[in-house]
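Appendix B, record 7
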Amino acid sequence: MTAFPHLPYPRPSDEPQRLLDQLARDPDKRADFLRSLLGENACRQLAIYPIPDGFKLSVVIPVYNEKPWVRELVRRVEAVPLPKEIILVDDCSTDGTRDILKEFEAEGHVVVYQTKNQGKSAALRTGFERASGTVIVVQDADLEYDPSEYPKLIQPILENRADVVFGSRFIGESHRVLFFWHYVANRFLTMLSNLFTNLNLTDMETCYKVFRREVLQGITLRSNRFGFEPEFTAKIAKRRPKWRIYEIPISYAGRTYEDGKKIGLKDAFQALWCIVRYWLAD
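Structure tokens (predicted):
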């Protein structure tokens, strides 16, 4: 528009952009700015809070034949603005996943190659041995669970309200609509686990289990395949009230068997056995 060409237009200032760039680079300054803008209570609701000095999150990722997904998954984990280490444990993949993991190893991530396929739980045990962080989170190598939710998952721990946090797919966040009988099986296994542990969890089978590293002290994990979920739940329940347990709602983008989903009916029966076995004896 040139109706008033003789009038000078004010030039936009570069200061707002410089401020945005500075906040993007410094999570602590970004949190301080948002607290001053929104207030502390609103920021707590949005999982915006200061990260204590010395904090480090250990992200333990068991991997088995996840070539189509693992590169994007690791990119999303890397993008989370938290001090962290990424530990990938390959459970003897055969689809070319190991070639991708070698790239991550060259970038400085911890990568462990199992010599034979033993299952998810065995891979997690190996990853936990390498973890050096203040807090540990279990992360599947596909894209069903969203790493951007780490800040709200660790918040009860950093605020000293919890020692263990379960991310629940069934208490309020979005999820992809998929298999009814998987839903029924998950709810049944959670109910049965609760009967033995006297917990009131809504999602025992969730991948997202977050806990202080010292929670593993005194716990001997034994199961392989998908037995980690009921075994870990039973063993931390036995140590109440020492370990405080919370649930946080999470989103869930479940995949189909055509997408590479691996858990099946025999794993449900194994979970039943683990619920009973690890509550009665170690």
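Remarks on this record: Residues 180-197 form the longest helix (18 residues). The mean pLDDT is 87.
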